[in-house]
Amino acid sequence: MGIASLEDKIVQRAVVTVLNAIYEEDFLGFSYGFRPGRSQHDALDALTVALKGEKVNWILDADITSFFIG
Fold first, then answer.
1. CB-based contact 32:40 (threshold 8 Å)
2. Rounded CA gap, 17 and 56, in Å?
């Protein structure tokens, strides 16, 4: 495990800032993953509001863990 130096942290923060500025406008309003100012709690709150306010015909639950593991 490596410990990031101050310079590494500065570069990482700069890259995050630039990439957020580029891609933030492309995300849809219901996208919550790894976005500034949004959390899993916000996603769950939005889901609760949607489920209570709309007729729901189906819910999809997918386990994609094995997709990321070797």
1. yes
2. 37
Q: What is the largest CA-CA distance in the chain?
A: 51
Instruction: Kindly give the confidence (pLDDT) of every residue in the chain, 70 residues in length, as a single tens digit, with 9 standing for 90 and above.
Output: 677 799 999 999 999 999 888 888 888 887 887 788 888 899 889 889 988 998 888 888 888 877 777 6
Structure tokens, 60:
């999809």
In whole angstroms, what is the distance from residue 22 CA to residue 8 CA? 21
Report residue 56 as tokens.
Answer: 């729901």
- The tokens of 66 are what? 């094995």
DSSP conformational letter for 36: T
